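Database export, one record per block. Field names are fixed; values are copied verbatim from the stored entry.
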Amino acid sequence: MSDKPVFRVPVGTAANPVLDPETLERLLDLGVSEDFEKGARLFSVGDSDIDMFVVESGRVNIIREATVSSPERVMAQWQKGEFLGELAMLTGQASLLTALVVESGRVRRISNATFKQLMSSDGTLSALLLATFRARRALLMAAADKTTEILGFEGSAQAMALRTYASRMELPHRWRDVTTEAGRTSLAASGKTEADLPVVVTRSLVLTNATTRQLSEAVGLAYRSKTGDHFDLVVVGAGPAGLAAGIYGASEGLSTLVLDAIAPGGQAAASSRIENYLGFPSGVSGAEITELGIVQALKFGVRLSAPSEVADLVAHADRAEITMTDGESITARAIIVATGARYRRLPLERWNDFEGGSIFFAATELEARTCSGRPVAVVGGANSAGQAAIYLADLGSPVHLIVRGAAIESKMSSYLADRVTAHPRIHIHTASDVTELRGNAHLESITITSSETGDSADVEATALFCFVGAVPGTSWLPNVERDASGFLLTDVDLPADADGAAWSALARRPLAFETSIPRVFAAGDVRHGSMKRIAAAVGEGASAVASVHRALAAV
């Protein structure tokens, strides 16, 4: 261990609040005192369901252990009157760090189960701990030395998927482009070659040709069945509707699991700035809404797992059984489908060559880094496209906004259309389509063709952001009533003869948000007739839970 002075999180900051005597005593009353000698570990990297500790005497260092490319580092030190803990205690994620006793003393151990009960039952303490844990995670995210490294090529779709997942899950990580000197050094230190990319380096593992599923398993975020698992409610999809359903379900006493095939956030996470969402007069990004929603869900005891893709659903008289793509089976008394809808791919040659590396369905900071102020194209005429165009243009990129309709005002909110029209770096092409993509390893230019005149123009575009159409995420659902576009029919929109035998047995008709399968509900963009707005999706998720309660009470 280095003898250099260790970093002390400043006392009185969000990451190290001063506890008044009454609050400290309330925390101490929840735990059991234990004495530890110098050199003992309170927890280690990779441990799951770790306990919370309050230091009564002595000192404890929080250590980021060495990896193949980075030496060990002391991240913080906690002393008398301070407490250990971080968001991993809520997420169920394997610990990213090690807690090492460096001066013998006494700590008060609060079991993980007691801690989770506290978070859902004590509003004052949970607010304090949540704020502290979020601040500590922010410090980890900003630290120069990260717990995980992702190595790959800048334009790699596989590497971008890993980076997107790590960002949405707030997994402290460092991206290394292997075309840079730092990236080549890290790749060499890992003992791997370009044929192994993308590579993920953790303290104990080096993953080659890594996938998000492998990364989630390495850090303990994949779904793991536990003895005695029983869920009242499983929510499939963790966009705004799914997160809202999870929060309302868990906060109202339902044992709740939320699954997502990619990562929490859905299409909302792709929005760089939303200015007409209630309560955020200065605007809010989709990433911020997602982060706050995740923390709120975890506070109430929601189990959240991603990437966890559902492959099938079988309904029984008293329960529903879902099967995951990895073969795992989960049963629940009720299901809420909140899988949303994804943007459509354009029927263009070489689309697959560029998707994920130069073609994106989101415009966040992560995707914007690939552009670095160079010309880009945005396809779409609704709010998501307008938000993306303004965000990219504000970062210095000349933007070609390609709209199929005759005017952007037809589908875009007026405040947003006015800003798009007035922006000096946005060139609007109405009644137009992208008809050709060109480039070598990366997109370099596109052809835009007017549907009115037939005239075409070639323009430089180093990236294309696509926000057109909507394909509902319902392919895994068998024998359920859909509309012509695949969106789920619910309650009054269901045909009068939809599975009449099932409803006759229950002596009732479908409840609000209930699909043609009893106790299987739909909320958000995946539902026929939904408003396709974040606020509406949140409302539908909450309202669907009210119907879940009614359905379960009748069983």
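Remark 1: The longest helix spans residues 123-142.
Remark 2: Residues 387 and 462 are 19 Å apart (CA to CA).
End of record.
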